[in-house]
């Protein structure tokens, strides 16, 4: 169990995490979703005692990380897969971590097997592919058999096999009753992995619910309508409080309604239609809209421009 309470973290002028509160429960994969710079890594670092909060706190099983005598037995984390000493073998790297935490050496062999590192464990880390480094990082996270696990962007840069393997592993770890928090900036990835989602932007909580609830609330229905008299339709729809946008000379897009409703209104306005269809906004578009005001930088074709306070786009 992880409990984040009123967590705020400032780095000088940068407010990385802003009064953030959420819980991560055992037995589920919880996705920690947000655009780049949203504050996911900072939050994870505070949970792991690697950064001090400016205010508020993050507890693991009701205690501060720094209060654990043998923290690797409580919490395991994959933060930076490049952190291992390149001259060591994978096995030696894991043995050092085990010894430092009073964990028996046989556990090293168990985790090597669990992550499928196999014979690569005998080789020096500098020769590892990204996928092997990732497996080694996960082996290190699992070494103390912890009940709480944090993975920061674990599928970044992996090929499809690696991505599938990580998905399967996260599911198994949750099914074993562990608390699993996994961060990503990709909704499409989280959709396939997470039971619950904690969505943040600019350090603030945007949504905290089951993946199903969040996805169900995204992707609004829009109606495309073509007519030789779009001006009349536009005025008629707006009069009835509908949100309408002009797509081109003859086509309008009406938000949050149904084709039936639009057809009825067009008939009431006595305007002929040439086309009427319902389109669901894509989840990616909806996610960008949801977190849009909170994105730290928006690409503007050339140099990225910082967004002024207030989040104007
Ligand atoms: N040590 C630091 N010093 C100064 N600013 C920092 C530091 N660490 C993070 N930040 C800033 O805090 C904000 C949140 O960063 P963080 O890395 O937590 O976001 P993130 O959601 O993990 O993003 P990403 O997906 O890009 O890793 C950013 O504006 C970042 O530049």
UniProtKB/TrEMBL annotation:
Domain of life: Bacteria
Keywords: ATP-binding, Nucleotide-binding, Transport
Taxonomic lineage of the native organism: Bacteria, Bacillati, Actinomycetota, Actinomycetes, Pseudonocardiales
Signal peptide (from-to): none
Domain ABC transporter per the UniProt entry, residue ranges: 2-227
Organism of this sequence: Saccharothrix lopnurensis
Listed name of the protein: ABC transporter ATP-binding protein
Transmembrane spans: none
One protein family per Pfam: ABC_tran
Keyword ATP-binding: yes
An MF annotation (GO) of this entry: ATP binding
PANTHER family: ABC TRANSPORTER, ATP-BINDING PROTEIN (PTHR43335:SF4)
Family that this chain belongs to: Belongs to the ABC transporter superfamily.
């Amino acid at each position: 169990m992880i409990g984040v309470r009123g967590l705020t973290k400032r780095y000088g002028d940068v407010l990385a995490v802003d009064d953030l509160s959420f819980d991560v429960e055992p037995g589920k994969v919880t996705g920690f979703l947000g655009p780049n710079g949203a504050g996911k890594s900072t939050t994870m670092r505070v949970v792991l005692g690697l950064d001090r909060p400016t205010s508020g706190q993050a507890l693991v099983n009701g205690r501060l990380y720094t209060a654990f005598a043998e923290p690797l037995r409580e919490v395991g984390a994959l933060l930076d897969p490049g952190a291992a000493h390149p001259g060591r073998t994978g096995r030696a790297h894991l043995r050092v971590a085990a010894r430092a935490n009073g964990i028996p050496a046989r556990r090293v062999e168990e985790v090597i097997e669990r992550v499928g590192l196999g014979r690569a464990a005998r080789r020096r880390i500098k020769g590892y592919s990204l996928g092997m480094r990732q497996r080694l990082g996960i082996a290190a996270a699992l070494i103390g058999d912890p009940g709480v696990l944090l993975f920061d962007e674990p599928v970044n840069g992996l090929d499809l096999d690696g991505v599938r393997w990580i998905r399967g592993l996260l599911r198994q770890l949750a099914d074993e009753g562990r608390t699993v928090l996994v961060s990503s900036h990709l909704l499409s990835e989280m959709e396939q992995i997470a039971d619950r989602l904690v969505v943040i932007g600019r350090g603030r909580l945007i949504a905290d619910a089951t993946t199903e609830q969040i996805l169900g609330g995204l992707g609004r229905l829009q109606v495309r309508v073509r007519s030789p008299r779009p001006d009349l339709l536009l005025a008629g729809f707006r009069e009835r409080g509908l949100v309408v946008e002009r797509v081109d000379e003859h086509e309008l897009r009406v938000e949050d309604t149904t084709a039936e409703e639009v057809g009825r209104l067009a008939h009431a306005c006595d305007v002929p239609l040439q086309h009427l269809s319902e389109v669901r906004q894509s989840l990616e578009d909806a996610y960008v809209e949801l977190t849009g005001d909170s994105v730290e930088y928006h690409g503007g074709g050339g140099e990225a421009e910082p967004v002024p306070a207030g989040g104007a786009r």
